Structure formats: C-alpha cells, structure tokens
From TrEMBL:
Directly interacts with SKP1 and CUL1. PROSITE patterns: FBOX (PS50181), WD_REPEATS_1 (PS00678), WD_REPEATS_2 (PS50082), WD_REPEATS_REGION (PS50294). It comes from Piprites chloris. Keywords: Acetylation, Repeat, Ubl conjugation pathway, WD repeat. The keyword Protein biosynthesis does not apply. Transmembrane segments: none annotated. Gene3D superfamilies: 1.20.1280.50, YVTN repeat-like/Quinoprotein amine dehydrogenase. SMART domains: FBOX (SM00256), WD40 (SM00320). InterPro entries: F-box-like_dom_sf (IPR036047), F-box_dom (IPR001810), FBXW2 (IPR042627), WD40/YVTN_repeat-like_dom_sf (IPR015943), WD40_PAC1 (IPR020472), WD40_repeat_CS (IPR019775), WD40_repeat_dom_sf (IPR036322), WD40_rpt (IPR001680). This is F-box/WD repeat-containing protein 2. WD repeats lie at residues 144-183, 222-263. It comes from the Eukaryota.
Amino acid sequence: MEKKDFEAWLDNISITFLSLTDLQKNETLDHLISLSGAVQLRHLSNNLEILLKRDFLKLLPLELSFYLLKWLDPQTLLTCCLVSKQWNKVISACTEVWQTACKNLGWQIDDSVQDPLHWKKVYLKAILRMKQLKDHEAFETSSLIGHSARVYALYYKDGLLCTGSDDLSAKLWDVSTGQCIYGIQTHTCAAVKFDEQKLVTGSFDNTVACWEWSSGAKTQHFRGHTGAVFSVDYNDELDVLVSGSADFTVKVWALSTGTCLNTLTGHTEWVTKVVLQKCKVKSLMHSPGDHILLSADKYEIKIWPIGREINCKCLKTLSVSEDRSISLQPRLHFDGKYIVCSSALGLYQWDFASYDILRVIKPPDFLNVSLLGFGEIFALLFDSRYLYIMDLRTEKLISRWPLPEYRKSKRGSSFLAGEMSWLNGLNGQNDTGLVFATSMPDHSIHLVLWKEH
C-alpha cells in the first residue's frame, strides 16, 4: 500500500476506532494483537512501557512533590532515592520530611540550617547512631587507675572528672586521654565539686574544705557539722556554699570566709544531696532568676530560697509516700523547671512552678532502676547490672549497656552521669565523651564513653 493510501486508511480506522465503546476497543485490540508477529509485539511492549510510566516527580511542581512525599515513611523514601538521580535530588531536598524523621528519632533540629541536602545526611547519621544504641554498640569502656584506696566521690564537668578517695587525695582527670592533670592531698572525700581554680570537698571528718588546684593549698576550712558531709554545692556569684550531712542538717556558709551563715533543720535522715540552682519558672513562692536550694534525704526533698537573704524557711517538702513506706534514691535532678527523683515505684517528676507531680514513669516490672540523668527526650538510668536509656516520649527502654560489679553507695556519690546535653536530643555532635563513671572495688574508676561514629 502506498504511503498516501495508508495514511488515508489509518485516518478512517482511527475515526472508526474512536467511535467504539471501551469494550469494543478492547476487543479490537485483542484481535489485532492476535494477528501480530514477534516484531509487532516487541514494538508494542517497548512503547507501552513509555506510555504507562509517568515520572510524576519530574512533571509536578516541586511544592506538590514535597507534599506527596510527606506521606511516605523515611525508609520508603530512601528506597525511592534509588529510582533515578532526579528522584534522589528531589527527595533529598525535602527538608520537612527529613527534619520530622530526625525529630522522631530524638534528634535536635537546628532550623537555621538552610542547606536543602543537609537533613537527609543528618537522618542517615541519626538512624545509624540509634541502630548502634539498639544493638549495644554505641559505647566503649576504659579505666582510670591511680588511687590506692576506695574512691567515694566523683564529679564531672567539661571533659574533666574529679575523684576523691579514702587515700586522702583528690585527682583531676582528662577523660579523653585518661591522664591525671592534678593530684592533691586532702582529707577523706565523701563529696567533691570543682571549677578551674578550686576544689571543694565534703569529708567523713565532718568538715568541708576548699583547695587550690595549682598549689594544692587549703584555702578555707568549714567546721560545724557533727556528722559526715555527703554533698556540697556552691555559687561564686552569691559567695555561698551549702553542705548536706549525716547530722540531718544543711549548712549555708560564706564561701570566701568560711563563716557559717545558717543551719537548716527539718530533715530526719542523712542529707545525701544538696543542689543550688536558679529558678526558671514563676510561682507564688519564687520568680525566674531566684536562687533555690534543694536538699534530699531518704524520704523527703526540701526546697529552700537562697539569695541575699540567708535566713530562709522551707518553701515545700516533697515525698512519694506520707507514711514513709517508699524511700527515694540518692540521686536528684533539678534544672530550674522540674524536679526528678527515682524510687521503688518509678521516676517521679514534679513541676517546680506548682510542686504538683506531673507524672510517674514506671520501668518494666523486673527492673529496679535508679536515676542518673533526665532530659527533654531521654533519661539515663541504671541498676546493678546495666546502664539504660529510656525514651521519655514513649517511656520505653531503647538501649542497655552491661556494667561490671561496681562499688555500691547508699549516698549515690560513687557513680554519675557524664555529658548531659544529649538527653535533650542528640545532634550528631553531642554524642561524644563520658556517658557514665563509677568507682570499682579495686579502687579504679570504670568509664563508659560514646564510641565514635
């Protein structure tokens, strides 16, 4: 058939075909396919693939593509990235999807980052770190060796760990290298706290002392307690030092002179923890910026206003059981907004503005865990065998790490959490350094550290 005649015939056939019903069209196609040979069928197959597969991400406006992608889970999106370079480019640039995925993993989001390809990379890093936590591969351990007697006191700050021992010494360690920076002769240390210049120690000899790191000299000696001093805290701005003791009292001292300014009474058990912190919320009893003292014993947490007026009365006493049938663990978290303490019933969280219990987090029945650190996203817990990470949004344990037979302490001072910022959400940079430290029966200090990615 000549080309001209063929084109006329094809036009007539097309007009007739378009006038048919869908069923008639299908029957016509079936008949034509049955008459076709291998060449025609191959041609049909190749063209059908092109006609049926429409790249909607390429055809749609970018805003609509992003809207559709938001409905897919991250794992499906990662699979979709393998379809083509174009798909990978569009999906990788879908910032909101990857930011949401990171948040769901407990990752901090910095909205100031404008790079559209940044957040997919962050998600991939986050999913790897969370998998390492789940598979018990996120941490590593090391030891600090140097004391010749029991290590009673630990305090951590900015990559440095201070240890106070029954060998009448205190040492300052660089956690990253394991090197001892300072070692000074002290009394027996039950509690320690330090800064760049000084070390404050509470002792089993019933006193508190202040020492100079560079020379090892004792610059102040605070005498007045009639029992061992289990906890100390201080504030240079207020020129105040506070100490909690086995004599059931809390003493407030002038840091610079060593003078006892006040003795706070009311506890009926050893005062195992004192915390000085600025208030961050407003209530009838305090305002943001006020300095607050918390003191805790076996059954109660007492709240005191500390400022220029040293003579203060207890604002509130918190407990988890009126009949004292449930005791508190000797660990206390206070960030100016919330108070958190653990007991046999679980973790108790109080709102500092109202003093109401916000929630009680109960771990699994088979666990009797104690508090180490508490943040906005995660909590760090432990028992005699494991270190645990809890997702506070679901109150589920997401990871654990085995612990050796460490030295037990009724006062809670022979173990501590290290870096704490990651408890408010990981960000790919704060998962470094010390996680946990505890003293061992052989006088060494056992460290749990984040393993590098």
